[in-house]
Amino acid sequence: MSTLKIxxxxxxxxxxxxPVEILKGVSLTLNEGETHAIMGPNGSGKSTxxxxxxxxxRYEVTSGSITLDGEDVLEMSVDERAKxxxxxxxxxxxxxxxxxxxxxxxTAKTAIDGKAPALRQWxxxxxxxxxxxxxxxxxxxxxxxxxxxxxxxxxxxxxxxQVLKPKFAVLDETDSGLDVDALKVVAQGVNxxxxxxGLGVLLITHYTRILRYITPDFVHVIVAGRIAExxxxxxxxxxxxxxxxxxxxxxxxx
Length: 254
Ligand code: ADP
Ligand code: MG
Fold this sequence. Notes:
Blueprint: E1 3-15, E2 18-31, E3 35-39, H1 46-54, E4 59-68, E5 71-72, H2 78-84, E6 86-89, E7 96-100, H3 101-113, H4 119-132, E8 143-144, H5 150-164, E9 168-172, H6 180-197, E10 200-205, E11 218-223, E12 226-231, H7 233-242, H8 245-248
Parallel strand pairs: 3-10, 3-11, 6-9, 9-10
Antiparallel strand pairs: 1-2, 1-4, 4-5, 7-8, 11-12
Helix pairs in contact: 3-5, 4-5, 5-6
Adenosine-5'-diphosphate (ADP) binds at residues 13, 15, 22, 40, 42-48.
């Protein structure tokens, strides 16, 4: 069984005012097939955690570790992380003018697997992903994210997930900007990937809404760079009722 383990992670970023520690000791263990929700108020460090796992150069790990099946993820380049089975769906996906969705996905799949996918299988996979995400055929020929609506960007991220078949996916605010119908389609896409490949999911979200469609096994609440509370799905329900106020009243608030 695969395991992604984050242990006492401290992360600093450089700002105009000098280095600032954003994550102040975050630990969690995500096993294959599990879904962990990372929740928390704005600015608490959720995206910082996602980018650090993905290997964004801006985020400096000053102590702690991230390992995938015992291998040191922090020693891996961004490419190596993808090859090892890590996937990040960004909060704000980037546009790649001139590169079509179909070429982008095929190039990514080839890079990750170390060989080009067999054509017949690939065409089937692509069509299956597009059907399940209710995207029309013309979508595959558009430039990546260029002029995509918020919903299309998120569907494209989930389409990547379905064809690249990572071991672990970090989904950063995949629910933001989606209407309820798009949210259901995206959630179903994630659930299908879980069922098909035993995907482990780190589901980062400010709101509890998506958790009605993707049921978390565990919920971790991050406040000011630390895990403030952990529990099962019932914790998300509590947050839906109470919000984050009770975490922010103490000295923690920034
Ligand atoms: P979240 O995703 O939980 O909303 P982030 O991880 O994006 O939080 O941000 C955590 C903290 O880091 C915030 O206080 C934010 O202001 C700060 N931060 C993030 N990126 C930058 C940056 N480029 N420059 C300065 N501060 C930043
Ligand atoms: Mg964020």
